[in-house]
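job 3f2a | input accepted
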Amino acid sequence: MPPDATGRIVGIDHGERRIGVAVSDPTGVLASARGVVEVRGPAQSCREVAGICREVGAVRVVVGLPVRMDGSEGESARRAREFGGRLAASTGLPVEYWDERFSTVTAQQALIEGGVRRERRREIVDQVAAQILLQHYLDARAGPAPAGGFVAGDAGP
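job 3f2a | predicted structure (157 res):
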């Protein structure tokens, strides 16, 4: 997607128990935390996230890809790709995968530094991680010095 294209982009931090969701502004410059979807099954989770995509008028989805430090993919990355595939089929939106290494750790650190209590951190860390990975994606589209990285060959339809 060219940097000058506009429309909301949804960022997904896919986890086994919760899916963090973030949404960009219409110009694709600023990411905001949107919420968390509790995972009760693949179909239900996909329906809920697809509903958010429709609600905000998304033009694209970015799914965080939890790659290992050496760049290889494990079981978590496989699950994220499966979810992204289901979401693309369900919404008809292009889905891209974005290296999300350190997004949850960064989110935890930011929440701790912000004085957020432990119980509240557990409730919001996934949506903050989604916001961080989406912001890295948006920043990389806007210009040089990307934070994170596009996983080559993973642009959706």
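job 3f2a | Confidence is low (pLDDT under 50) at residues 152-157.
job 3f2a | closed
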